[in-house]
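CORE FACILITY INTAKE
Project code: CF-77B
Contact: R.S. (postdoc)
Sample description: multi-component assembly, two entities in total
Requested service: structural model of the whole complex
Turnaround: standard
Below are the sequence entries exactly as provided by the requester. Do not edit them.
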Amino acid sequence: GAVVSQHPSRVICKSGTSVKIECRSLDFQATTMFWYRQFPKQSLMLMATSNEGSKATYEQGVEKDKFLINHASLTLSTLTVTSAHPEDSSFYICSARDRLAGGRVDTQYFGPGTRLTVL
Amino acid sequence: AQTVTQSQPEMSVQEAETVTLSCTYDTSESNYYLFWYKQPPSRQMILVIRQEAYKQQNATENRFSVNFQKAAKSFSLKISDSQLGDTAMYFCAFMKYNTDKLIFGTGTRLQVFP
């Protein structure tokens, strides 16, 4: 089955530093990947949509200069949290859409998430 | 804008019993998709079931079935013969037709007791 991995699974960093999170589709090609943020005991909020070879589309209220997204290949998207602050601490989840799935809408596969803690 | 509401923050059920999780949504769209996702303690989101709005027949996947009431904008999930492995957060989600954007509800934490 389709597998999406995220690395790292957990990261702790100091305030002011930058952190990169990787999202990989392991056995399929993903033209589109999505980045979500999940606060404790809350829902997933879409942050941005990442398309291979083009700029990401950010949701309203998400700072694109703070959350840098790069989708350089059909199997890898990265989210970089720049100048991280404690309020950026959260659970970040990516999902990937299978390029070959055509019109099927249930072809978003989720990664296991990355817990970011900013001290 | 679309919104998804799950009014039950927590539910519990005994093993082998049946439980129903509620979900309502608000949209002006006529074509859309609805989903139930499961997030177990491992935090990995898993698709449980999906429903196309144009289909009147309720979707079923083994022990999981939905009651889709389009006019009432209601989309409940019924879990039959509950198993301990069903313990998880359950999220209802909406997707407008021809988009990939999922809008999630706030989730219902389900605990299955032996």
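Facility notes:
- Chain B has no helices and twelve strands.
- Chain B touches chain A at residues 33, 35, 42-47, 50, 91, 95, 100-107 (CB under 8 Å).
Invoice: internal transfer
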